[in-house]
Specification:
The chain is elongated, with a radius of gyration of 33 Å. The protein starts with 52 loop residues before the first strand and ends with a strand. It is mainly beta. β4 and β5 form a beta hairpin. The protein has a 21-stranded mixed β-sheet that branches. The protein is built from nine helices and 60 strands.
Length: 934
């Protein structure tokens, strides 16, 4: 026998540095770019092993719904290992993305994308770290691109940008490819219908919600069940707020049911529910499961469309059910869509797990928060200023524990996509959040507070932080004593809107009563042991990659780990820790490893970590009313603490797409480690490459792994950020060689370095190198130029001949062509820095023998040639000291050799040392460099 729920559901509950050669790819720092000049034209699709591809059922079709609301992309035609997969338009607010989702048994399937109406000029695949130039091929007609999903990325998703990049300048809609693993059959419940058609199968333990809701609504139509809120005495009655007395006995207004099409509906008025709204049916279904704990443990949503106030589970202890857990399962074609919420202050997230425990949510149905419509006050929705609405998002886990989400899709969230508040032991596996809109507060994952939270496999499209934590009480602007509330009701003036104020308070109290806690106490515990791995996150405009500690209200935050965390396109910043402190962080540990942050849109550096010695006083009133951390002694009295340094901060094998150093501090840390950082495609081996500045750190360890697998300390100094050679021979005089893999010197004898040669048959050559000096905080006591010797040109020259390098600082604003601009990337013999070398103006290397390594004449790559490998050094201390004293941000050097008959010498250039087209026998250690001693 089925025991019914404990009564009807409550009807009144509120609910690049250089230009490349034509034959080479042009790799944008932010992605794998195929440019027009270097387009790889091929009709060949990479071979792939037999792959099982599962295409998903149409979203929302089933249970009487015959048409999906999804609209097929008109830009992209997608195939996965030869199987067509539909791409769907996401156009609720702008059109930033089309999305192709499917499941397969391969993590590296071949993806073929055809754009019938678009000529492919460039392609970027993200995360760019795992899709370098050459990983994408384009058909001869430039309408089809092909790539294989990266095994190294360890992700189930990739973002494809055709004729655009992560700066969002052009190219929308972009394409998101979502490759879920094939579903484990064990996740799917027994879907056998109950014999009596009730939807409640006591033999299998499954409640089929589609069948249950149909029966429930037939017996309890919304038109009868729904009631407007009655007038009640305000919780602020008899109190004074900002100088305005609220009369004793002051009541809220009596509510009315208004048309569902009404705009800006405020409590106590409520929109009339549609006949098929299953909000009340859900509450009855959950009550039925609670009432049958030894028989029922699964809430099942077959394919079809469900319209409601969201999946709200409040006060359910799954451990009391059969098997010790409530399982909620959505079929892959289920669309669980939020209605336009009852009124603007209502609390209706897409998924809300409140005051509950031991719940597992599985299945690949789509939870749709209907966020754009809900926050569109001009037509269908409501205003959403903080004082008029509760913060609410896609998935919210609040005051709950032992919760698991597997394979969950959320789209069109109202605010944060996935979030936790005072939650414990929560696991997110393979979760997706598809909200690529300019909605406010659309964080990817925001674990505002919580302990032992694990997210493994995360894909989010949003409009704000990719990840955030430590933003306590995000709805504190919606409380009776918040200034935004009483200011907007003119309390404290001669014309206060008392009725409007008490109605707003009534809306707040209704939600607080339903949740069991008010807005100030959503977050009421320290946050610790938060782990996020295997993620890809994209942001429309605002936000940071990682933001920790914006407003933690005096609570402690510690033990954050990010592994294979990949952020694309945020605007505000990269890793931001601190913010709204000061905060007591002595045990805080933040580790980011094997990750990438695309900082192509930043106007500042990608790190902002600061936690100095400021103090903070937390008053007794803040503790008692406003949700601040209690006095550690338990007294509740006012206390003051000093902000402690962050205990541990570590970046290990983290990739930043571009060099941005402005306003990028790393400070206030006891132990900081920077290992194997990559910036703009280069391994950080010199201090000038760091995309940050350091100060106030107890112990700072900076290391990298060399080509032999050995750990080395990062060297004080800089790599060249530009180099080239120029030639005096008539065929070389107009060439720019800044993309060559070697640098060349040869002294014609006209001038000390051959720099005065102008006409004739001479074959002189000079090299120029530029070094950044911005990382210097003082003039160094010593500075040394390092060049790696490759070899010389003529076999007739004895290997025992000796030579010296000559170096002189020059300016690229005084040029041989008479102009005022001759930078490295356009420099030629005819238009290069003009200078006169003298014995007193140049620095010299020690003499060295030319050796027996012979390199053919001319420019070009010489990619496979042998390399002598000797490190030729020149002391240029005075040059660097003078440049620093003059406030120069860069130092440009001319390099030649002292001379000798037929002495034409070659050295490894920056491009020759690194990159896919480098000299075969070169290593990154061979790049031109400047080392300094403080």
């Amino acid at each position: 026998m089925i025991r019914p729920a404990g009564g009807d559901a409550d009807p009144n509950s509120a609910p690049a540095r250089r230009s490349s050669r034509v034959k080479r790819f042009i790799a944008a720092a932010a992605g794998a770019t195929i440019a027009v000049a270097g387009l790889m034209l091929t009709g060949t699709v990479p071979a792939h092993a037999a792959t099982t591809v599962h295409t998903y059922a149409p979203t929302g079709v089933g249970g009487g719904t015959t048409t999906s609301p999804d609209v097929a992309s008109t830009k992209y035609q997608v195939q996965v290992a030869g199987t067509p997969v539909q791409a769907v338009k996401y156009t609720q607010s702008g059109h930033n993305f089309d999305i192709a989702r499917f499941a397969s048994d391969s993590r590296t399937p071949t993806i073929t994308v055809t754009l019938p109406s678009t000529t492919i000029d460039t392609v970027n695949i993200y995360p760019a770290r795992y899709y370098p130039a050459g990983s994408v091929s384009v058909s001869a007609d430039k309408h089809t691109l092909t790539f294989r999903m990266s095994a190294d990325a360890g992700l189930n998703q990739a973002i494809v940008m055709v004729n655009g990049d992560s700066t969002n300048a052009t190219g929308q809609p972009y394409l998101a490819v979502v490759n879920d693993p094939l579903e484990d059959p064990a996740q799917r419940p027994n879907t056998t219908s109950a014999p009596d058609g009730s939807g409640v199968n006591l033999q299998t333990g499954v409640l089929n919600f589609q069948q249950f809701a149909a029966k429930y609504l037939a017996a309890h139509p919304n038109s009868v069940a729904q009631k407007a809120p009655a007038a009640t005495t305000s919780s602020m009655a008899g109190k004074t707020v900002n100088g305005t007395a609220v009369p004793a006995g002051q009541k809220t207004s009596a509510g009315s049911l208004v048309s569902a099409s009404s705009v800006n509906v405020r409590y106590p008025n409520v929109r009339a529910m549609a006949a098929d709204d299953v909000t009340y049916a859900l509450r009855a279904a959950i009550d039925t499961i609670k009432a049958n704990p030894t028989a029922l443990n699964t809430l099942y949503f077959p394919n079809g469309t469900y319209v409601w106030s969201g999946l709200l589970v409040n006060g359910l202890d799954g451990s009391k059910l059969k098997g010790g857990k409530l399982k909620i399962y959505t079929d892959e074609g289920a669309l669980l869509k939020n209605r336009i919420q009852a009124y603007m202050e209502a609390f209706e997230p897409a998924v809300g797990i409140i005051n509950s425990s031991d719940i597992e949510i599985d299945g690949r149905g789509v939870f749709d928060g209907n966020g754009v419509a809900n926050y569109n006050a001009r037509s269908t929705g409501d205003l959403h200023d903080a004082y008029r609405s509760q913060h609410q998002g896609g998935v919210m886990v609040m005051h709950s524990s032992d919760i698991t989400f597997d394979d969950t899709y959320v789209r069109n969230a109202k605010q944060w996509n996935y979030e936790t508040h005072s939650a414990n032991r929560v696991t997110f596996n393979n979760i997706k959040a598809l909200t690529p809109y300019r909605q406010p507060w659309i964080d990817g994952t925001n674990f505002a507070s919580g302990q032992d939270i694990t997210a493994n496999g995360v894909f989010t499209l949003g409009n704000d932080d990719a990840f955030a934590s430590g933003h306590y009480n995000p709805s504190d602007g919606f409380t009776p004593l918040a200034p935004g509330v009483w200011n907007n009701f003119q309390l404290g003036t001669s014309t206060p809107d008392l009725q409007g104020y008490v109605n707003a308070v009534g809306a707040h109290d209704t939600v607080a009563d339903e949740l069991g806690f008010d807005s100030y106490h959503w977050d009421n515990q320290d946050s610790k042991n938060i782990s996020v791995s295997n993620t890809l996150n994209w942001s429309v405009s605002a936000g940071n990659a990682i933001r920790i500690g914006w407003a933690p209200y005096g609570y402690r935050l510690y033990n954050y780990t990010f592994d294979n965390f990949n952020s694309v396109s945020p605007w505000a910043g990269g890793i931001s820790i601190g913010g709204g402190g000061p905060n007591p962080y002595p045990d805080m540990s933040v580790v980011v490893k094997n990750s990438s942050i695309d900082n192509s849109r930043f106007t500042k550096g990608p790190v902002a970590v600061s936690n100095g010695s400021a103090t903070k006083t937390i008053t007794a009133e803040q503790q008692a009313i406003y949700g601040y951390a209690p006095n550690p002694d338990g007294s509740g009295t006012t206390y003051t603490y000093t902000r402690a340094p962050i205990g541990t901060f570590k970046l290990d094998n983290v990739w930043f797409s571009q060099q941005r150093t402005n306003s990028s501090p790393l400070s206030g840390v006891t132990n900081a480690t920077l290992n194997d950082l990559h910036v703009a495609g280069r391994l950080v081996r010199y201090t000038s490459q760091f995309p940050l500045t350091t100060s106030g750190i107890g112990t700072l360890t900076t290391t990298y792994t060399d080509a032999n697998g050995q750990t080395r300390n990062v060297k004080a100094g800089a790599l060249a950020d530009g180099d080239t050679w120029v030639g005096a021979w008539w065929g070389d005089q107009t060439k720019n060689n800044s993309s060559d893999l070697t640098l060349i010197t040869r002294n014609t004898g006209v001038g000390l370095m051959g720099e005065q040669y102008t006409t004739g048959s001479g074959d002189g050559k000079l090299s120029y190198l530029q070094f950044p000096l911005s990382s210097l905080t003082r003039a160094p006591s010593q500075a040394t130029l390092h060049l790696t010797y490759v070899g010389h040109r003529y076999s007739s020259v004895p290997s025992t001949d000796t030579d010296q390098l000559l170096v002189q600082p020059v300016s690229d604003t005084t040029c041989t062509g008479g102009g005022t601009s001759c930078p490295i990337n356009t420099m030629t013999w005819q238009n290069r820095p003009s200078f006169t070398a003298t014995t007193s103006s140049v620095a010299k290397s020690a003499t060295f023998t030319l050796g027996s390594t012979i390199i053919p004449e001319g420019g070009g790559t010489h990619q496979g040639n042998a390399i002598d490998g000797r490190d030729i050094t020149v002391d240029i201390t005075s040059f660097v000291q003078n440049a620093y004293a003059a406030g120069q941000s860069t130092l440009l050097l001319a390099v030649g050799n002292a001379g000798g008959t037929n002495h034409e010498l070659r050295f490894v250039s920056s491009e020759g040392a690194t990159g896919s087209g480098k000299l075969t026998r070169a290593t990154a250690e061979m790049a031109p460099a400047l080392t300094v001693t403080p």
